[in-house]
C-alpha cells in the first residue's frame, strides 16, 4: 500500500522526491515521480506514447474502457492506471470522462505536469508551488514535509472548517497548498502558471417520463453500480446502518454477489440510542453474515488522535473513530472491499435540504447572496460563534478574506441547475460529498488495507438523479422517494418507508467522560492564538445554551486541534 508524489522543477527533481521520504520511480528532465509509504493504492510508472504517469486508480468499467481503446488497449491484466493513461493519451479528457472509478493521476505531458481527479472525488489530490517549482501528491503530509515549501496555518481555512465541519473547496489548512477539485484536470507549467479544465460536472437534463419508468431506469443503474463494485471471487463487506441507503446496497449485494456478504453495524452501548433493530432486520432479510461492533467511549478517547491524523484534512464527524474500527473489523475478517450507502442524501434529496426549502418559502430578503448565507446557517456548526470563539487577532486577520458563503454561492444561483432542490443537491455533492463523505471513507478504509466503495456516488447514478424531476426526489414530505421506489421490492416496508433518523452519537457523554481530560488539556492551553479560552472554558462547563450541551461545537474545535498537532502546524500565517 502506498501513495504517490510528483515534482516539476529544473533543479534535480529526483532529490525533491527523496526529500519528502519517497522512493524514486522515474526521473526525466524536470519531472520526477515517486511512491510514498502509507495506506493507498498508488502504482506506476505507467507509459503510453510520450506520456508517463503515476496514480492511485481503481476502475469499475474496465471492460468497457478496453473496448473503447480497441487494439490499442494495454494487455489483459494490466493495471487500471495504465488503462486510464491510455484513455488520456488517445482521447484526452473525454477519455477520462468515460471512466467510472476512483482515481488521482499525475501525468508528465511534455514540459507540463497534469493532475487528474476522479468525477466525484473519491481520491484526494493536492499541489503546491514554491520557488523551486511544483509538487503534487495524494498525501498532504508529504507536501508538509517538502523543504522547499514554506507553509503554515491558512487561517481562512480554519474559519471554513468551523463553519462546515470540513473544508469545502480548493483550500487546505496549509498555506499555499491546494486541492484539485473532482472532475477537474489541472495543468502545472514550468513557468509557475497553471490552468484548470472541467471534464465532468453534473447537469440538469430533466425528462418527463412517467415515475415508474424513472424508477426502473434508476434500478438498472443501481444494480450496475453495485455489481461493478463487487470484488470478483471474494466476500464483500457492507457497512450497514439500517437506513434506506445502506440497506439497498446490502440487498443488491446479496442479490448480485455469488460470494458471502458480510454486514457490519455500530453500537455505542445499551444506554445510547441506536438503529440496531433496523440493521438487524435488513441483515436477516438479506441473509448476510452480520456483526455488531460495540464502540465504548474509552476506545474513542484512546484512538481519536491517531485516527484524526489519518485524514488529509480534518473532518468534524464524531463517527470517525467508529468508522476506522469498522474498517479494521472488515480487514480482520478477510475482506478487501467494503461497500457503503453514502451518497443517498446529497444525490437524491435527504432531510438536510428541508431548512433551505423552508427558508426559500418564507424568504423576504431579495439579496441574491441571502440564499448562500442561509445555507451556511443551516449547518448549525460554529459559524455564528466565530466572533466569540476566535481571538480578536484572528478575527481581525480574517476581515478581508472571502467568507465561507463564497464556496456555495455559485451553486445556488440560476445556471447549470434551474430548480432549487437540484441546486442544493449540486452544492451538497460538490462540497460535503467530495470533501467530507468520500474522502473520510477512503482514508479510513485505506488505513486498514481495504477499499471503501460507494455505489450511490456512481457517475451514471448521479446523472440519472439530475434527470429525475425534483418532485420525484422530494415527494411531499417523503425524501428520496424515487430511490425508495426503485428498490421497494428488495426490502421490508418498515425499512423503505421509515423516516430518516440518523445515527445518534453520544458526543456529550464522551466529552463529559473519557474525553474530558484530553479536551481540557488541549483546548485550554491557549498557545496557538486561535481560540478564546474563556469561550472554550464556558462551553466545557455547558454555558451558553439552554441545555448544557455544546458537544458538537467542542468536537469541531478538538478535531481541529488534534489535526494541527498531528501535522505539526503552528499559528496563523495567512
What features would you highlight for this structure?
single chain, alpha+beta, 574 residues, globular, 6-stranded antiparallel β-sheet, 25 helices, 19 strands
Number of helices: 25
Shape: globular
Q: What percent strand?
A: 15-25%
Total strand segments: 19
Helix and strand content put the structural class at alpha+beta
How large, in whole angstroms, is the Cα Rg? 23 Å
- The mean pLDDT is 92
Q: How many angstroms separate the termini? A: 35 Å
Query: Share of helix among residues?
Result: 40-55%
TL;DR?
The protein has 574 residues and is an alpha+beta fold. It is globular.
Kindly describe this structure:
The structure is a single chain. The protein is an alpha+beta fold. 41% of the residues lie in helices and 18% in strands. The strands form four sheets. It has a six-stranded antiparallel sheet. A six-stranded antiparallel sheet has the order 4-5-6-7-11-12. A hairpin with a 2-residue loop joins strand 6 (101-109) and strand 7 (112-117). Helix 10 packs across helix 25 and helix 11 (320-332) crosses helix 17. The longest helix has 27 residues, at 420-446. The chain is globular. The two termini are 35 Å apart. The mean pLDDT is 92.
